[in-house]
Structure formats: C-alpha cells, structure tokens
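Kindly review this protein for my students:
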Amino acid sequence: MLRLLSVESGHRVLEIGTASGYVAALLSRRLGDSSVYSVEIDEGLAHHAAAVLRAAGYRPNLARSDGEWGWPDQAPFERILAACALRTVPHALVQQLHPDGILVAPMARGFWSGAVVQLTADGTGQAAGRFQGGASYMPMRSHRAPAPMPVDTTTCRTTTAGVDPRELLTLGFALYAGTRLPRVRMVHADQDDGAQVWVQDEDGCAATAVTGEDAYEYGVRNLWQEVERVHEEYVALGSPEARDFGLTVTARGQQVWLHHPERIIEPAPLREPAA
C-alpha cells in the first residue's frame, strides 16, 4: 500500500491507525518527522507506538483520536493512508486531501474480503479511483459489521447448486456481488477438492454450498439463488477483474463502478420471499 501512496519529498502524510508504529517509522524515515501525522484510537496501542518510535529515534506527530474524522486541524494532506479496513470511505478524509492528493485504503464489506482502493481528490470534495488488489486489515472500530439476525435452521431446504462455490471466491466477483447484495456477507473454507461457502443476509436468511453437492437455504428468501443470479450477471459482463472496478466518494456517499465512473453498479432489488 505504501507503493500505491506514491509519496514524494515535501508531502505531508496522514496515517489512520498507528498500531505498532512501523508504518509511521517508514514514513518518517522517508519524509521526516514533521511531515508525518498518525492517529490511533486505542489508548494502549497509542502509548506503545509512541514509546517504540521514540526508542527508534522517530518523533512523528501522533494523536489519540478516531480516524473516522482524520486530523482536520492539520489538514490538508498530500497523502492519506488507512492502516485499517473501512466499510465506507469517510468524506471527512476526502475533504482533508489537497487537490490531486491520494488516499489509499483497504475496504471490507460482506463480500469484500479486503480490496485496496486508490483514490485521487479532484478539489471539489470528491475523490475517485480504482481498486488495486487485495489486503486484509482489522476493521476501523466504528466500521465493524453489525451482527446479523440468527438463522432459523428449521427452515432448511435444499436446492441444486448451479455454480461451483470456487467460482465465487475471486476478488472481482466479491466487488460486484458486494455491491449488488450490500447486506450479504460471505465466508468460505477451502477443501481438498473444492470449497464450502456460507452466505448470510442481515435479515437472517442464509445459504451454504459445497463443491459437488446441493446447496442449503434458510429463511424466507432463496438466498443461494440470488447469489447465483448475481454471478450470472457477473459472467455476462465478462467476469471483470478487481482492477476493472472503481469507487467514487462524495458528500452523499460512495458508489462502485465498472470500467468508468459513469457505469455505476446499483444494489439488486430485494427478492420475494420463498414459497
């Protein structure tokens, strides 16, 4: 992610999530202490990082605060790096970028198992850019996913699995499916001859499938069939890779797009309950 940040001498950089202080040390070595700003919400981590950095001879600007809000008193910055996963990019961070400034952040949604986005500010309060691959980070505390409703296992029923679960595990599909089905999360387990996936909506509807076997659905919706329909859409689009997708952040929120910012991907309409 530091490569994507493309720092240059004279840049002022804000890091969201000091953690151990390692990244702050690297940035201080490259840019000098006075050009590096780092915030950490956890009191214990913040104190530990400050001590470790001092012992190593670095004294960047540190603060204990919620990275959701950046560091407005010290803005603007040429670069902002989130060292924690975001569900959405806070508009406050975009507002604290210089025009043409770059923000790099790992995103984490239900289907998004760690997608790094590189955004460039346009000077009007907006930023846009493409996804650049995957990385897994702890989520920002205020961005942790809400717990879904319990699954009613008494509603279990079988359906033929028309898609091998392994085909759902690419980052490109995760970006597309996570945008079309924004309330659905997916986890998976690799197996010797395939994979098992579990998908669950916030409303408690769920489904699971294993390579070569039928799928099982739970709740009032046919969630596995919804996932398969979204996969059919994805294949019809040419099975785009992660770098074919991008993100635009404005004061109104964020939108995922495919190939071009005007090709916005909208959430799929909710399906009727299962008969």
Observations:
- DSSP finds six helices and 14 strands in the chain.
- The mean pLDDT is 94.
